[in-house]
Amino acid sequence: MCPIWRLLVLLSLLSLPSALHKQGLAKAHVDSKPALARIIAQGLMKHNAEGRIQNIRLMESLNASGQMAPGMVGWLISSMSLQQQQESSANVTNIQLDYGGIRMSFHKEWFSANISLEFDIDLRLSFNNKIIKIHVCMNLVMEFWLEKDEFGRRDLAIGSCGVEQSSIYTTVLTEDISPKMKHFLRHFRENLVKVTPHLVESQVCPLISEILRQLDVKLLKSLMEQAVAHKFNQL
After folding, report:
1. Domain count, the chain
2. What pTM, to 2 d.p., does this model score?
3. pLDDT tens digits, residue range 86-130?
4. pLDDT-based confidence at residue 231 (cuts at 50, 70, 90)
5. 155 φ, ψ to 5°?
6. Which residues contact 170 (CB under 8 A, 6 or more apart)?
7. What is the CATH number for 206?
8. pLDDT at res. 184
9. Residue 161 vs residues 33, 114, 175: alpha-carbon distances, Å
10. Are strands 103-107 and 89-97 parallel, antiparallel or unpaired?
11. CA-to-CA distance for 187 and 68, rounded, in angstroms?
12. How far apart are CA 145 and CA 36, in angstroms?
């Protein structure tokens, strides 16, 4: 890696706490985090991961996936006219990616990054002017490691990246819901658990891959070693 690129990486690491402070995340104490976690956090902010998640077309994805079919959900959607379906919406708002709380796990030269994410969904149906707010929480885990080729040279390998199914929680924040809507929302939340992980993965996983692949292998190995040392210092 050229000296100028090393300097740029160092400067970017030093500037991260200031960037996080501007994001209102100074309380995350990013200085205590391994450098690799900070680089991933900075890259996600640079590529506007939160904005990408906010722009997902949730209602269209639910309809296209066929997940709207079961129970009351299917009955309500199928009974709407095309105009009513177009007037209904499910918008992602209040996104909170925990940049300062990225957790790194390791075993030798195998690593995983665990990122927690929360957001709200503002649901509005054409026959009900009331906006129903649903809160969603989940954790996304990405695995990566350094592997040797036949000549003993190391290269970055990207493994699985996905939302932990057991980490997904949905909560209805709006009060005074009618019994009919409560039945609808129960099915709707079940469908959210099936659909939203794939939508989040499609936006965040490619970004993390791109961030890691931009790093020189020697630098990446050094950052991994720093993370290991940081872990042992915390014991």
Report:
1. 1
2. 0.73
3. 567 889 999 999 999 999 887 777 888 999 999 999 998 766 778
4. low
5. -145, 155
6. 134, 135, 136, 137, 189, 192, 193
7. 3.15.10.10
8. 81
9. 21, 10, 35
10. unpaired
11. 9
12. 13
* Structural domain span for residue 175: 32-76+85-233
Helix axes 58-65, 179-213, angle to 10 degrees: 100
Strand, helix or coil for residue 65: helix
Query: pLDDT tens-digit profile of 178-227?
Result: 887 888 888 888 888 989 999 999 999 999 999 988 888 888 777 777 76
- Distance, CA of 200 to CA of 49 (rounded, Å): 10
Place of tokens 């070693």: 225
Q: Does residue 207 sit within a domain?
A: yes
d(CA 57, CA 89): 9
Query: Are residues 181 and 128 in contact, defined by beta-carbon separation less than 8 angstroms?
Result: yes
The answer to whether residue 153 scores a pLDDT higher than 60 is yes
Q: What is the pLDDT of residue 97?
A: 94
Pair 19, 30: CB distance under 8 Å: no
